[in-house]
Amino acid sequence: MTESHEHTSGISRRKFAQLLAVSGSAALLPAAELRALERPRGAVPGAPPSADDSFWTLVRGQFALDDDLTFLNAANLCPSSRPVIETLYQRARDLDRDPSPDTKERLIAQREETRRLLAEYLRVSPEEILLTRNTSEANNIVSSGLALKPGDEVVISADNHPSNHRAWTEKAKRFGFSVTVVDAVTPHPGPEYYLEAFRKAVTPRTRLVAFTHVTSTVGDGFPANELCALARERGALSLVDGAQTFGVLDVDLSQMQPDFYTGSGHKWPCAPRGTGVLYVRRTAQAALSPSIISLYPGSVGISRSHEGIGQRDEPAMIAFGQALRMQMTIGRPAIESHARELSQALIAGLSSTGGVKVWTHSDPARSASIVAFQPASLDPRRLARALYENHRITAQVRGGEDRPGLRLSPHLYNTHADVERTLAAVRRYLTSGV
User: For the whole model, what pTM was predicted?
Assistant: First the structure.
């Protein structure tokens, strides 16, 4: 990294080293690399906020990924960084050494710090945050907690995840309300198209509008702010599935203003498995009944009534907070910019490769950091296997007839070298076969 990139990425080398030291993970870095992090550097006045591959290589160094692995599957599961792994281990060790009520109380207090960090991260209040196990659980807390009855209607997107699609249709059978589905269109026809499609679908009977911020299928982005505003104007609630934006886009719920927003820790935030979040806007809390009644609730706001589900994995939730700290220290705008830049490079490279059909739109306003493509006549599963076994490139397979192919999702631990390596390998198999 050049001196001009010291602060423009949203984090200085010294600040990054301090983060590692606080987490106890500085010792995991080679001494020479740590000294490089701590060396003071000057920033060029007026330089644009950007960071080159040397900075993101330093970030990758905080993850336990194998050196030869090109991991492009953040949309499914992300690795945790060394600071997160170490926090998880230390807190679990504390509890197993002394599983007394005093230890449990200390861990619960640290869990509440994660709630505070989540609120800061999403720009809302801790009283509106529920700690969940993942997006699926969070979505189902909403679909199970609303008092919907015959005559009521829920409007959803066809490209929703099953936890925000099939969950509604199954509960509609049980409780008698209806579900209206807004069809997905590929290629993405533009934000205004979906805004108009939902505007036509919403009726006076609509009680909730549920959509995905960015789809897991082909990475289509929905106009979240405008759709939430539409729901409010029509007297309906809004549920935004943020599984593919929480942890990669600089999401600001104070601007989006959904009634419910859900996300997973194990994806883009790079937190431990079994962690997630449900945001419930203050004005929507009275409409949501708790689905599970037990012990050990949270200490503030809606967590007092909706988070008492018995024994929880406090070490994982505490480490979730460490993952958020790391992202906030690096700078969320820098992370979003980097992920978008890599995905745009993948789209451009694949689009210029003969025989490849890219399902994800090239317009950054219609996508984020997911790239889906059909590799000509190659079998997607065989291609994915060849990429992994011969090149150590991890991709997700999309089978079936609905926009089949491979899905790539780069993140903060990836570089442009990863993109070039992946494009070269795909082109090789398009020429030679698999």
Answer: 0.89
